[in-house]
């Protein structure tokens, strides 16, 4: 289970997403959580994985805060109901409405038998880290292992899965199209290199059970993003599928 908090607001001036604003917003949200639950705030700040929540700015009027931890959303909701304002270095604005939804893995997009191809779009710059170094190549193993971490953090997950459970599925994916370009992001004091674009895989070789598991990982990816610095707006993903003889207009859901 994952949680999505949508803040309906209006940014008075144009800002880059992601960029300094999302970095400052992350720090502001941690401060808000600290005011309600100092222990949780410290855990989020000190976590090496930093995958407990993600921030995506859809437009100048919509900010999404996504988390696998219900307490993160509860703390923020408590704070915003008490003081519906966001005050960061580059912007101060009021929150008009707050919406919270649950996303269940059991309600994942369904990769049914007639699904032939899977397309993943990297809508904001995406990067991965290993041993302190950035990697900006869209390697399937890095993409899906990132989703696996989110899957294992979900409250619905009754059994932790390991990389060996995922590897046979990854090996069956056949890349048929790729259009990727590098795109750096300036966070003010430093720049992070990432990539944007799309990849299309043929998934005909997957069994029905493998497709079911992959569909849950795709839901994790679309809610929480993939890679590093999703708390700063990186790694936003959108998935679509193509069926035999036709194309879907978006992620297929049951």
Q: What can you see in these coordinates?
A:
The longest helix has 17 residues, at 20-36. Strand 11 (237-243) and strand 12 form a beta hairpin. With 254 residues, the protein is of the alpha+beta class. The protein has 6 helices and 12 strands. It has helices spanning 20-36, 38-46, 70-82, 140-153, 163-172, 208-224, and strands spanning 2-9, 53-59, 62-67, 85-87, 92-103, 115-126, 128-130, 133-135, 174-186, 191-202, 237-243, 246-247. It folds into 2 domains: 2-103, Alpha-Beta Plaits, CATH 3.30.70.1890; 106-242, Alpha-Beta Plaits (2-Layer Sandwich).
Q: What is the topological layout?
A:
Elements: E1 2-9, H1 20-36, H2 38-46, E2 53-59, E3 62-67, H3 70-82, E4 85-87, E5 92-103, E6 115-126, E7 128-130, E8 133-135, H4 140-153, H5 163-172, E9 174-186, E10 191-202, H6 208-224, E11 237-243, E12 246-247
Antiparallel strand pairs: 1-3, 1-5, 2-3, 4-5, 6-10, 6-11, 7-8, 9-10, 11-12
